[in-house]
Amino acid sequence: MTFSGAQINVQKTKSSILEMVDALCTDTLTVDKPGAKKFFLSHGSLLLSTTMTQLNCVVLLQSEIPDEEEEESYGEENSLCYCKVQTNSGVQLCVSRGDICSFSVDAVVNAANEDLQHIGGLALALLKAAGPELQKLSDDHVAKNGKLRPGDAIITDGCNLSCKYVIHAVGPRFSDSNKKTSESRLKSAVKESLRQAESVNCSSIALPAISSGIFGFPVQLCAETIAQAVREFCDSPQGPRSLTEIHLVDNKEDTIKVMATAVSKEFSDLGPVVTIPQQRSNKDSKPSGSKLQSGGSQGELSRGLPSAERGAEGGQLGPHRVDRRDQSPKQQHQHWRQRGAEQVTANGLKIVLHHGNIEDQSTDVIVNTVADDLNLSQGAVSSAILKAAGPRLQRAVHSESGGPFSRVVVTDGFDLNCKKVYHAICPSWDSRGGSAMKELVSIIHYCLEEAEESRMVSLSFPALGTGNLGFPKDLVAKVLLTEIHSFSCRSRPRYLKEAVIVLHPSDRQTVECFTREFHGNAGPTNTQAMSAGFGSSALQEKLPHSKHSSSSSSFSVVSSPSLGVYHMKLGPLTLEVSSGDITRESCDVIVNSSNSTFNLYAGVSKAILDCAGAEVQRECAQIVKFSPTKR
């Protein structure tokens, strides 16, 4: 820390900080129970957050740190790790400088061309190390199956390499005029490489900076795109199963620093460890490095890799951690954007908020929104899905229309990564003047029920109706989450296990609305209450024992006759919980929370007194005036 100012104030400041530092206490708890890591990275994160808030402490999850012998052997292999992070799915991602041809993994990825002719760059280096058999296997594949396309990947034997398999990924040739297509195809090449590794149960894989060589992809954009693709793969519902390690490898220091920056930025919410290896002064000296525990300070990291290598003011760099409670709303939003969020209902249905493109989802079902004319080229969601699925999707929509439920048309997914697409014909928002909201609820209900009846395991919703159709974003967030919870409670699904709500990265307002609504119901108590319908057993424990509460049969299942209204029978009584304006309730009695003189003119009391009128206020004043005791 550097202080500047009047000497007396600097001394006071230094003393105060030293007192705080002396009061700090740190300890390490090692949890060696099976499944602990997965638990604390998912549902257990809520408990950790609550603990930190209540006890004013910071809890940091750390992956296993290799001992000195492991670090020394790692350096002796001429492989230096610049960045390491553990994903939410438990996969360890490492950015390393080294020779991919001798990297100790189950599979290495070759940056190949469409003809699989390994005549230059990394492909030639791998061929020389693997032997001529690798080219023969590649030629045989092309002769049998034809040329590959950008974004494709195939797998062959590793031949004389130390790895078991070589995955040949065809990256795109970069084009400034069609940058989005280039990025999309590069992501496809990365994801397909990871899927190929999964198909043969590989536990580790090494990927180079695909397309950054003669294919002309800018190194920084290439690194960012690869990092995004790895994250999307690891965070997807159909994510990694056998893979436990993913290595991004290059032998050029400048490239690997850019890749480390991209990974630390993309995974900033997971606390990546960034190590800047220092150059050896002689052959006998051991490599050393400075580590940064990145907790989301992206700007410093992306700007400061070279300066970090030199050190701050010529001194040692220590651990740097960011407490997210001190972050701005914008930084907290960025943290959610990359990490996502999830709930699990009492009946086991997982509800996930996912930040990405609906057309990239690999769930069994993708829900699309279309207009009455069934033209998929109109609207942001439907046009994106049409472009990814291909023209057969439009023909299928027309041929399958007129099904049992006129508001949803079911088709195959074609070139999408899903089995089925549910095309929802949403009405335009009518400001509650018509049946638009009722129809939207019916569409959500039908999609969930149809997925369950069709034995689908997972389903992705977009933010239905929030685009050109004009539905209020906060209202759709409430309706969608409420209906999913209601479906879980009502239908107790056997097959449908996951409902994903996909929010587009550019729609910041929608993201914020869904995030508020999601976290408003995300606590363990709220989520369980909503999911289980305010479970009768829990209520019986809290209510006084009476003749009406002696058995569970006195309590009915919670029903929701309309949006935001919940009914439950408690013996002869009906309990209703609803959201709305208490002054508009048409019941026999309204309870007003007031003060001892009944003249509280704030909050709910003010609203009630305003609506009740002057006569009620005078009556309250008279009661207080002539009452023998103050209330």
UniProtKB/TrEMBL annotation:
Residues 80-267, 338-522, 562-631 form the Macro domain. Keywords: Glycosyltransferase, NAD, Nucleus, Transferase. PANTHER family: PARP/ZINC FINGER CCCH TYPE DOMAIN CONTAINING PROTEIN, PROTEIN MONO-ADP-RIBOSYLTRANSFERASE PARP9. InterPro entries: Macro_dom, Macro_dom-like, Mono-ARTD/PARP. The keyword NAD applies. Residues 288-305 have a biased composition (Low complexity). One of its GO terms (molecular function) is NAD+-protein mono-ADP-ribosyltransferase activity. Signal peptide: none annotated. SUPFAM superfamilies: Macro domain-like. Residues 273-341 are annotated as: Disordered. This is Macro domain-containing protein. It is found in: Nucleus. GO terms for biological process: negative regulation of gene expression; positive regulation of type II interferon-mediated signaling pathway; protein poly-ADP-ribosylation. The keyword Glycosyltransferase applies. One of its GO terms (cellular component) is cytoplasm. SMART domains: A1pp. Its main location: nucleus.
